[in-house]
Amino acid sequence: MQINGYEIAISENKLDEIITEQTLPIELIGKDFAGYQNLAEGDKKALQYLVNAGKIMTDVAQEQDHHMNRIMRRELEKAAPNSTHAAKALKLFQMMSGVEGLNGIDSKPIEIFEGIHGFAGRNFYPHDMSVEEFHRIIEQMLNEGKDSEVKKILSARTMVRRNGNELKAIDYTEYFSKEFSEIANLLELAAHYTTDELFKEYLGWQAQALLQNNEDMDMLADKHWAQMQNTPLEFTISRENYDDEMSGTICENAKLSAMLSARGIEIVAKDMLGIRVGIVNPEGTKLLLKFKDHMKTLAALMPYSERYAQNVAQGGELKQTMVDVDLTALCGDYAQCRGAITTAQNLPNNDKLSIKTGGGRRNVYHRQVRMSGDKIRQKKLLDALVQKDFHQYFNEEAEHIFVIGHENGHSLGPDSSYQNALGLYKHTIEENKADVVSITFMPEYVKAGIINETTLKEVYTTWIVRLLLKSKPQPSQPHRLGDLIHFNFLLEHGAIAFDGNGKLSINFAKLPEVMHKILEETIAVQLSKSPEEAKKFIDKYSNWSDIHEHIAKVQQELGIKCYKDIRMHF
Ligand SMILES: [Zn+2]
Fold it and tell me: Ligand 1 mean position to 425 CA, how many Å?
């Protein structure tokens, strides 16, 4: 079956298998949802405009991701009514929101068409440009004094194209002027109808930011956005730079890095854009705020707390809002589900101007994502690997409590200057720290009356079951590597054990002491500011042995739903 001259690379049988056996549906809320029906009429109208804006952002992100995405999508849509093979290929395209991508399990990307491959620079950079040529052109442009153009080329908000023997940067507001102005119009309409003053004001700033080639406008929009704690609706334009693998290669070129740094030019990876829309859930949000209130108490309990200043210092106000959200739309970058989908997201990231100039952050928890687990598979997994007595303590909602502790954990401990000093290992150590902070301090939430003893056991059990890995983690998977470290640490210190039948048991009484120990070691690594110490710590606890092979085998036999099907109803 050919589409636009390209053969579909995946057989119809294989596509059936992907869609029916390897896909996890994620049902977003519809108009029958109580939280929607309780909205004021104006907010209902606003919500629909915002979802429509999101759909346009999917188009933008597909263009950023691959130069063939939009054309191949259109051709698949044309062919789908007359071909089941094309219809199934279209389904996979929609699930990845692109022609190719990783599925989180296979080490190579899944490609829908023969001959259409991904690029390190996605579509941010010319797809026929190698890393060597990129570096050569940048060096030549610097030698010719074209510093200001190079600065734009290496900024987070430009599409880069060839210009004779050189490169030129096109600001997103220009490259996507048609889409951005449509989105801005929809935001203005939503601003008109919403009943919430702060939300109205934010949407106004955000609409302006989409129309002007000016990073200050993004900063102002971000600062307004991060202050929203009590608005009925959730709307986010996410800008995250994890997809571009071209810009960062310059960091490995010592000569070019030095030339750039001498000129004060920063290397920033390109932002992939996304839009998230939803309704703030008041009950869930109340729980989040209880956890937040407790953070100052926890800061005092951190190991070596006298040796560093924490951003939740006593007396200081944490510039952090947090909301639990029922989702109506995940678009653009959020829809590019390639293996994983996140259950919470704290923005803006550190590279953004609003953070650099003292703005706050907003953490949004995704209810429909966290409630989408495969219950039947979970039961089978427990039967295969966990002693019966502990099954009662496995509870998805308890994982949510762990995630709250994790997100808050990032705000505790040594600051980012310590974290970043660990170089290649910084993410693994920091994600490991956030996990460990969460679990170590769970008993403190019991003392404070925020959760009870049973919930504590559920958090422990659910977390430990999540440490049963499906495959050996790669160095590029900091969260999974952290899981392996925790598992090995707990096993070595007797907080967990396996019986003769390969079934897991948990020693609840021993956990607090063992967790304190790993937290102490982790903080010591961050305080050392030494990549060697970080590597030593990781190597010591990331041994992959027979028990891991056994667990991974069971996991794989149960099947892995590595594709996500986000189902929107607005
Ligand atoms: Zn994290």
Answer: 14
- In angstroms, the CA 278 to CA 364 distance is 10
SS3 531: helix
Centre of ligand 1 to C-alpha 136, Å, is: 36
- Do 381 and 247 meet the contact criterion of CB atoms below 8 Å apart? no
pTM of the model: 0.90
Strands (E) in 110-264, as ranges, are 110-111, 158-163, 166-171, 233-240
Query: For residues 388 and 373, what is the distance between their CA atoms, to the nearest angstrom?
Result: 21
* Domains of the chain, residue spans: 1-26+68-114, 281-567
- Cβ-Cβ contacts under 8 Å for 13 (sequence gap 6 or more): none
* Closest by CA position to 295, among listed 324, 319, 329, 277: 319
pLDDT at 421: 86
Q: How far apart are CA 450 and CA 414, in angstroms?
A: 26
- Most distant CA pair in the chain: distance in Å? 71
CA 134 to chain centre: 28
H/E segment holding residue 496? strand 496-498
140 phi-psi bin (left φ>0, alpha ψ -120 to 50, beta other): alpha
- Taking the centre of ligand 1 as the mean of its atom positions, its distance from the CA of residue 327, in whole angstroms, is 21
DSSP three-state, residue 168? strand
pLDDT of residue 315: 55
Report d(CA 97, CA 104) in Å as an integer: 15
φ, ψ dihedrals at 149, nearest 5°: -70, -40
Please answer whether residues 568 and 51 qualify as being in contact, where contact means their C-beta atoms are separated by less than 8 angstroms: yes
**pLDDT for residue 518:** 98
Spacing, Cα 427 to ligand 1 middle (Å): 9
For 315, phi then psi, to 5°, come to 90, -35
Neighbours of 316 (CB within 10 A): 12
Question: Strands 496-498, 504-506: parallel, antiparallel or unpaired by DSSP?
Answer: antiparallel
What SS3 string covers 373-395? CCHHHHHHHHHHHECHHHHHHCC
From ligand 1's centre to the CA of 7, what distance in Å?
Answer: 40
Phi, psi of 25 (to 5 degrees): -75, 140
Q: How far apart are the CA of 197 and the centre of ligand 1, in A?
A: 32
In whole angstroms, give the CA distance from residue 399 to residue 236.
Answer: 24
Which helix H or strand E contains 323, and what residues bound it?
Answer: strand 320-332
For 425-487, the DSSP string reads: GHHHHHHHHHHHHHHHTHHHHHHTTSS-HHHHHHHHHHHHHHTS-SSPPPTT-HHHHHHHHHH
Give the integer Cα–Cα distance in Å for 243 and 333.
10
- Ligand 1 centroid to Cα of residue 22, in Å, is 26
Beta-bridge partners for 7: 2
Averaged in consecutive runs of 10 residues, what is the pLDDT profile of the chain (570 residues)? 97 97 96 98 98 98 98 98 98 98 88 97 97 98 98 97 98 98 98 98 98 96 96 97 92 94 94 98 95 92 91 68 97 92 90 91 95 92 98 94 93 86 88 96 96 97 96 85 97 96 96 98 96 95 95 93 95
